[in-house]
Amino acid sequence: MKILLMMPINRSYVIMPSLGIGYIASVLRESGHDVTILHCLQKNFTFGDFQNYIKNNDFDVIGIQMFTFDVTPTRKHINIIRKFQPDTIIVLGGYHPSGVHEEILKDFPRADFALICEAEIAFPELLSQLQSNNPNFQEVPNLIWRKGNKIIINPIEIVEDLDTIPFPAWDLMDPRNYPPMPHGGFFKSFPTAPIIITRGCPMECTFCAGKAVTTRRIRKRSIENVIKEMKFLKKNYGVRDFLIEDENFTLFKKLLTEFCETLIKLKMNITWSCPSGVRIDTLDEDGLKLMERSGCHSLALGLEFGSQRIHNITKKHLSIKKIIEKMKIFNNINIKTTGFFMFGIPGETKYEMLQTIGLSKLVNINRAQFNNFMPLPGSELYKEIMDKGMKKINYDHFFVHDVGYVPDGMTRKMMKNMQRRAYLEFYLRPKIIIGILKEIQSLKHFWALLNRFIDSLK
Question: What angle do CA 106, 99, 38 make, to 5 degrees?
Fold first, then answer.
C-alpha cells in the first residue's frame, strides 16, 4: 500500500525529524509498504501548498500525527484530503488521540481510525486487515474504530523490547534538510538529530500527559543499539550533536553511566543534550562531571514552580530547598541549563506565580522557558478539570506562548502579562544576554531565537 505519514501545519517553533513518524515508517517498510513522510513545517507549506500536494499524489492511507495544538489544522488537512482523495483511509495518532480516546472519532467524524499509545505493532496490523478480504479490526491493538454506530477501543499493546524496532527511516527525514530550529533551540553543531534511549516514565506529575503514549512502564534500549544508531547518523548524515528526547533519561543511573562511559571509551567525538527535561533530584556532581566528559552540553530541568504547595498538589515530589541546593552543583560544571517553569495550575495564586519568577532568577540557570499551564488530554489535571464541569476547551490556545487555561481569579490578560513579565525579568539581565549570545551558532540561528523571544512577549 502507498502510505503518507504527515505532521500538520501548526504554530510550533520546533522543526526537526519526528521519531514517532520515523519509527512507524520503518516498520511499515519492513511489511512491504511504500512510505512517504511529509513534515509541513519543514517544507514551509501553506494549506494551498498542501492542497496541491494532495491533488498531485495518490495515497491509500494517510496517517496524521496529532498534538493537542494540531486539532484545528488537522481538521483543515482532513477536509482537503476528503475533497481530493475521498477514498483514502485517514488514521489519526499521537498524543492528542491517545489522551481523548473515543472522543477523537466523535470530534473527527471524517477520519476513519485512530491509533493510541505506541503504533509500531498496531499500524502494520491495521494495514494487513485493510488488505484482507475479510478484515477483523478487533485484532488490531491500540485501535479506535467504528462498528456501526459504536466506537470501539481495542486493548493496548506496547513494544517490550525496543531493540527489536528498526531505526527510524532517516533517509525519509534527512537531518541535513531541516532548519536550525531543534527542540530546545540550542545546539553545538548542525545538523542535529533526536534519539530516544528509554520509553515510559514512572512519575506521577498531574500536569503531564506523557504516559498516555509511552505509558508508565519503563523500557530501555541497549547502549550497544543506541551507539550503533549514533554512528549511523554521524557517518551518513554528518550528525555530531544529539538530542536525547527521553521523558526522564537521568532517572536511570546505571544506564546513564554506561552510556557516558561508552561514549568516552569509543572517543565518539559527539555532543549531546536533554531538551525534554530531567529531574534535578536525579543529578549529582560526579554524574554531571561524567556527563560533561562524554559530551553533554545542555540539560533542561523541570523546576516548574516556586511554590512548595503547588509542587505538592501536582505530585511533582520536589522541594524548593532541594532545587536550590542541587542547582549549586552547576557552579562547577560546564553544562548549560534551561529551567522549565509553569503558571496557572488550578488554585494557584498570583503570589505563587511571582514566587516562580523569583525562583527562576535565584537559581543558577542559563535559560528559562515559562509556559502557561494547559490541561493536556491524558493528564490527571485534565480529567479533574473536565469532571468539575469544564466541558469544552479551545485547543487553538494550546501553545507555549498562549493561554490555554485561565484559573479562577485570573483573566487571560493577567496570565499573558505574568508570562511576559517572567521572560523580561529573567532575560533582560547582562549575564543572561551575554551567555545567550555566546551560544548562537549562526545569523540564521540568531534570528530564529530573536523571533521566538519576541513572540513570547506578544
Answer: 80
- Please give the angle made by the CA atoms of 413, 417 and 419, to the nearest 5 degrees: 120
Distances (CA, A) of 328 to 274, 293, 435: 19, 19, 18
- Written as one letter, the residue type at 356 is T
CB 182 within 8 A of CB 275: yes
Which residue from 436, 17, 441, 439 is spatially nearest to 189, judged by alpha carbons?
Answer: 441
Report residue 292: phi and psi, to 5°: -60, -45
Q: Report which of 64, 115, 113, 55 is spatially closest to residue 86, judged by C-alpha positions.
A: 55
Q: Which domains does the chain have, with CATH numbers?
A: 2-153 (3.40.50.280), 179-457 (3.80.30.20)
User: Would you call the peptide bond into 155 cis, given omega within 30 degrees of 0 as the criterion?
Assistant: no
Phi, psi of 77 (to 5 degrees): -60, -45
Residues 6+ apart with CB under 8 A from 254: none
In order along its 458 residues, the chain shows pLDDT tens digits of 999 999 999 988 889 999 999 999 999 999 999 999 999 999 999 999 999 999 999 999 999 999 999 999 999 999 999 999 999 999 999 999 999 998 999 999 999 999 999 999 999 999 999 999 999 999 999 999 999 999 999 999 999 999 999 999 999 999 999 988 888 788 889 999 999 999 999 999 999 998 888 888 999 999 999 999 999 999 999 999 999 999 999 999 999 999 999 999 999 999 999 999 999 999 999 999 999 999 999 999 999 999 999 999 999 999 999 999 999 999 999 999 999 999 999 999 999 999 999 999 999 999 999 999 999 999 999 999 988 877 667 788 888 888 988 888 899 999 999 999 999 999 999 999 999 999 988 888 888 888 888 888 87
CA separation for the pair 156, 100 (Å, rounded):
15
Q: What is the rounded CA–CA span in Å between residue 168 and residue 164?
A: 12
* Cα–Cα distance measured from residue 229 to residue 163, given in angstroms and rounded to the nearest whole number: 11
Amino acid, single-letter form, for residue 239 = V
C-alpha cell at 99: 489522551
Q: What is the full DSSP assignment across 88-132? A: -EEEEESHHHHHHTTHHHHH-TT--EEE-S--TTHHHHHHHHHHS
Distance CA 289, CA 3 (A): 45
Q: For residues 21 and 64, give the distance between their C-alpha atoms in angstroms, rounded to a whole number.
A: 9
Distance CA 446, CA 452 (A): 10
